[in-house]
Specification:
Length: 103
């Protein structure tokens, strides 16, 4: 949408924040297959050997294909980090925030 409005993807700076990683985001095999059919980069396996998806890897792959070159992802897995909210870990709800700005 940004490129359609005149933005040059090569000038876009993208930062993705903490998220559950592919080593921790367990899903049924059918779901992994369905999501990976749309975006192969999401295909993952948990650290305990079950089907998983890596949402951040999928987002990064899509941004790269669109021409975004300045792309950095957080190394923090929200399930592994006690400093970050994770429903998958704690089974309680919480709050997350996101933001976008134009320079």
């Amino acid at each position: 949408a940004m490129a359609g409005l005149g933005a040059d993807p090569a000038r876009i700076v993208a930062r993705t924040g903490p998220a559950v990683c592919g080593r921790c985001y367990e899903v049924p095999e059918e779901m992994r297959a369905e999501v990976a059919a749309a975006e192969p980069a999401v295909h993952a396996e948990t650290s305990w050997g079950t089907p998983a998806v890596d949402v951040a890897a999928g987002v990064h792959a899509q941004l790269e294909r669109l021409g975004v070159r300045d792309l950095v992802g957080s190394p923090v897995c929200t399930r592994e980090s006690r400093d970050h909210f994770s429903y998958r870990r704690d089974r309680t709800t919480g709050r997350l925030a996101s933001y976008v700005w134009l320079d």
